[in-house]
Design a protein that fits this description.
single chain, mainly alpha, about 75% helix
């Protein structure tokens, strides 16, 4: 995915989540960017996302 398209898609997704009352942290933003750019696998993304979600519930 091209950088401009990636940034635009990420901004749109973030705004959509914020409209729904959800907060996107810089850590979450980076995690999504890493998987979209191929720096981590989808399995690693899922593992890290689950860890973030569990931490947020505390």
């Amino acid at each position: 995915m091209k950088v401009n398209n990636l940034e635009s898609a990420m901004k749109n997704a973030k705004y959509s989540l914020e409209v729904e009352g959800l907060n996107v942290t810089p850590e979450m933003n980076q995690l999504v960017k890493d998987v979209l750019e191929g720096r981590i696998t989808e399995a690693e993304f899922e593992r890290q996302a689950l860890a973030i979600a569990k931490q947020a519930k505390r």
